[in-house]
Model the fold of this input.
Amino acid sequence: MKLRHILILVLGTLLLSACNMTLAADVTPPPGYVAPTPLPTLGPLYPAAAPDIENGKAIFEKSCVPCHGETGLGDGDQGKQLPVTVIPIGLPEYANKAAPEKWYTTVTQGNIDRFMPPFLSLSEQERWDVVNYAFTLHTTEEQLELGKTLFEETCTDCDDVFSNLQMMSALSADDLVGMMRTGSENFPAFGANFSDEEAYAVAAYLRTLTFALPAEPVAESATETPVAAVTESASAEAGTPSAEETPAEGTPQAEVTPEATEEVASVSTGKVTGLVENRTGNDLPADTKVTLRGFDHGSNPSAGPQEFLTLEGTVNPDGTYEFETPLSESEIYITEVIVDGLTYQSEFAVVSAGVTELELPVIVVYETTDDYSTLKVNTLQVFFDLASEDTAQIFAVYSVTNDSDKTIVIDMGDSQTIPFIVPPAGASGLGYEAAQDSAAFVPTDTGFAMPPSETPYGLIAFASLPKADEIKISQSAPLSIGEVALFLPEGVKAEGDALTDGGIQAIQGTNFHVYTSGAVSENGTLEFTLSGKPKGTASTADLTQNQNLLIGIGALGVVLIIAGVWMYMRDKNKTEEFDDEEEVDDEYDDAESVMDAIIALDDLHRTGKISDEAYRQRRNELKDALKRKSS
Done:
């Protein structure tokens, strides 16, 4: 079974566990369960417009550098922490073999086998922008100049041939070198005598022929037209005095237009207030700081949010705080406060039209402790990938609750291990990720913290064991575990005194042999043996298409929260725009387009970026539209 299938089911299981149900206990989807969606639709494998390399660079720096590194060598900070090496797309040895349409497919659908998520939060054109920028990482200005000179000397009037977006998107640099050496009906073999260095320099230059031209800089006017240059007749017609005249007393002044009035009214002086509820048992220090952050999208409602405001204030003795700042419609605000070294954040609040005072949700701060014994592991669900000839990969999904009255601080130490999660004996390559639907962890310098929360914390631990005909598993439990479920590839069996055989169950199009176990006591051990070989796997829908399936603990922060908020707001606005059937039908050309819209909506809801009410309303509208388009 492929790794991505395991990850798919991990997410599906987490969704079900939120309903206090397990796949092992009941494979019938619970009420409100959202079925997985198919792989993202690719559309044409060439861009609709010439790629904007500067825009692609900005996207790469924001979304790709953490794993791929600035030069694409796979040396990003997050990439170094992955259990697999990041493909060095910045090396010519790798990039020269790839065609843009191949990389576009990967960016669109992801490569979960290598822990790369899909990036459907980007538009199709943005994906083409960043893909084409990635092809510039292995080139230099000197190489491009050499390629340009050689091309212009040997293939005059060939620009149109190699600026064809559809053709160039399907060709790698290796393909281009082969074509220029053999020629075609559209151009001669102009590269027959090139050295390899020269040929690849020309190939790199040919790629740039498909790029959008850089935006022309907007030059400021060197001089302003003097007001006195306005003719007297024009002044008279406009009813305004010339620059040389001083309006006489009582002369009517120019009226403020309604548009100007509306523009001024849209930004009003206001204030942001909130409360820090102190449950630490001690008074907060008198100088406890609170930070207000404001985010907006500027003039483009489909763009991501940008932080435009950071203000620092002091929490009053009664826990209240207040900031004075202009408020504009649709701006997003959150606050954060640091107590006992932990950064607590409020939930977000969005400015409505005409609002001059915004109250943020309460920030609750708690006493801290490093005693994790009060944590409860509700369920442990373990998935096995036995497709490799050498290793068995294990993904253990923990659902943990903190229903105490203290924030529990977990110190991962130098070994970067979580003390209440122990891998099976003999395992290696241990790593952790926070599940996407988890309650929010609070990052610390040496680990993370878990404030009290009604929402379970989801943690995925992954590791590898040596492959053998019989694999003995010994799973320790530092904390008691409410119930355990094992999901094995069909054809693989488990034997253990505490296991109950649930038989073969079809889950999301793939057959699993499911075993369950009752509670495992604190410091107890669950032991069993795996044997057999997996049968062939079926094609499974990919649930990870719109977001990272796994969100690293160290990456949890305000940027992720705000990005989610903005997508929620954008989708909410779309939902309000399409209230009747005619408008929905007009929005989409065919049934496939409606399906794409449903896929995107499901992703937003699954990742908590749209409210249940807005989701249900919009999905019902789209389902009705799909029926009409399909009939």
Remarks:
- Residues 265-356 form a domain with the Immunoglobulin-like fold (CATH 2.60.40.10).
- Residues 1-39, 218-268, 537-580 have pLDDT under 50 and may be disordered.
